[in-house]
Structures are given as C-alpha cells and as structure tokens.
Amino acid sequence: MSTILRKKAELKLKLVGACPSGLEDVMCKEWKSLGVHARQERRAVIVDSATLADYYRLVVWSRVATRIAIELQTFPSRGLEDPYKITRQIDWTEVFDVKAAISCEALSANPKLPRQWFNLRIKDAIADHFNQVKGSRPDVDRHQPDIEIILHIDQERAAFLLDPCGAPIHRRLYRQEAGIAPLRETVAAAILLWAECWKAKTVFDPFCGSGTFPIEASWIAHQVQPSLLIAHLGLEHWRWHDDRLYRKVCSEPRDAVNAEQVIIASDIDPAMVRIAKSNSERAKAEKTISFSEQNALVAPRCGDSGLIVANLPYGERMEQDRALHTLYRDFYKHMVQEFDGWDLVLLSSNLDALNSLGPKADRTLKFRNGTLPTDARLYRL
Fold this sequence. Notes:
Elements: H1 2-5, E1 13-18, H2 24-33, E2 39-41, E3 44-50, H3 52-61, E4 67-76, H4 84-88, E5 102-108, H5 115-134, E6 147-153, E7 157-163, H6 185-194, E8 202-205, H7 212-221, H8 243-250, E9 262-267, H9 270-282, E10 289-293, E11 307-311, H10 321-338, E12 343-348, H11 351-355, E13 363-369, E14 372-380
Parallel strand pairs: 5-6, 8-9, 8-11, 9-10, 11-12
Antiparallel strand pairs: 1-3, 1-4, 2-3, 4-7, 6-7, 12-14, 13-14
Helix pairs in contact: 3-8, 6-7
C-alpha cells in the first residue's frame, strides 16, 4: 500500500471509470478532452497514472461517468472463497476516517458468487480492522454512503476499488420529476457529445419529456459543471482528500463553447412540458431553453441548420407495434421534408421500428439503456 503512504502531491492513482455499456468510447474521448490520458479496457475507461487534480477534474467535469473509482490493491482471484483475509491486508485507517458511512459491494460476472455474504465479510473485515487500530468502527449506509468499497472479481484477479464520492455521480438533482422511462442524464450527455451538439446553431428536441436532452445540451454549450447538482459527495472523509486543491479545480474558469446556441424543446403532453420547465429551473437553464406544447409530427422548421435529438417511444409506451412503426415513419418523413440540411439523432430500443425507416444512418451508436439494447442513429437530412 505504498500509494496510500505517499504525500498527496505525489499520489499517482489508477482510476477506473464506469458508464452505461457501449458508451466507453464517448467517455474516453471526453476524459482526453479534459486533459487526462485515458484508455479503454473492456467495459471500463482506465487512467493508469492520474494525479489528484486529474481525479478531481473528472469528478467535477465528466458528464458521462456514472462512477470513477480508485484501484487500491489487487489479489489473485483463483480459489477466493472468503474475502475477509485479503480485506484485512489493507490498512483502511489510511484510506478513510472512522466517521465515514461506508457501503461494501462485491461485483463479479460469476452468477454463483454469494455476493451478499461477500459484502458482509468485507464489511466485517473493515470493521475489525478499525476496532483493532482505532477502538471504533465506521457505520454502514447502503443508501447514501460517504465512501464505497468495491471488490471487483474476474477469472484471474480481484481488485479493491474505492469510490470516495460514495453514491454514483450521475444523479443530478435537477430532475426531481420525470415521465415514463426517463432518459438517464449521463446517457443524454453522451449522445449529445457523440453528435457534437456544441457545433450546432440550434438544438431541437421534439419529444422532450422531462427535459433531459435540452438541459444537458445547455450545460454543454455553457460549460456548466455537471457536479454542481450531485446529491452527495463524501470526499471530506477520504484521507487523501485535499480540499484546497479540489476547490481550485472547481473554480477553474471555462468559457462557453456556444453561448449563442438556440435550444428548443417541445412535447405533445402539456404535463411533460410543465415538468421539463420545472427541471430546467432547478438546473438554472431556463433562460437558455425555449419550451412549447407541440405535436412532433407537425413541428415547423426552427432555423437554417442544427441538430434534432429525439428519444422516441419504444413499445413500453405503446401497446400496438404497428402504430409505433407508423409513428416512426411519419416522424422521419416530416423531418426530411421540413428540416433539410439538419442532423437528426433518433434514440430507441425498438430496433425493428428504427429499421423500418429504410435509409441507413450515417452513424450509429449502440449501447445499453438500463438493460435494453439501444441505438442512437444519426441521419444527415
């Protein structure tokens, strides 16, 4: 554990970033744009030698990451039947203080792994270590921890990961109201980054729902920190935390990349428009987005050129598959006729309905939206 014992200024951290499956390339490019040398490794994005400032910069600015963990130590995983012994090999008092509320989780692709029992044994080992060294132990909070300890187990090795932020960082507080099947904020941001939304004169979302796409587009255009509205960060209990450096990174100035961008959002449901407006107010983006109640099938052209992003209904919202196919075709036909010269991104988990459109997309991004295989397809109209 030589890393833990070094001075904070000399720390070199191995970071492991998680995001929805299929969006790793988008996140890797995002991290590189933030000045951090990152690489993809299977279903994660890795930074092999990050400084403390690099870690803070990713926590503050990454729009795509759901979690950014620090690798503490690795062990051979063959024959690992009880994690207690390897957990006790780490001096946890050098990692976080006893006042931290912790959560412990074992992750493995092996369905036979007794995860709940592993979680309990990891927690017991940490508690026993603190009791031995400090005479007291940290509390456990599975719902809102200050610190999360993850044991990631694959066929060859087991790695202890530390998440000093506690809860996943994708939970932005602005969306306190949502409709059916709301789009996760990190997914919306990833699609907008993939489509290079900041280059567009206008961004238009004709199926805006609770407003996730337009709010995330506004934050990208105006360089708003996505971490500003994260519910909870437990950094203060992390022994390596440097609050002055963290505040310095948070205050780094960043100019808007497209302050003149026009963002328009509409929905046929007036209740959803009301919710989207309310969410935009919490996100402090209401002055940058124009909302209206409108049928997407008759939406008028709203600029010379731009980007249309549409999270289409995908079966769970409509019982009749035939009606869904008709909606997709009618919407696409209207976009082609009315928005010539624009880019159109269609997002859906109903791949049959997307395929029914006929024309091949210019670009396709395949990922998982929760458990659903999903496509984002970009058409140049």
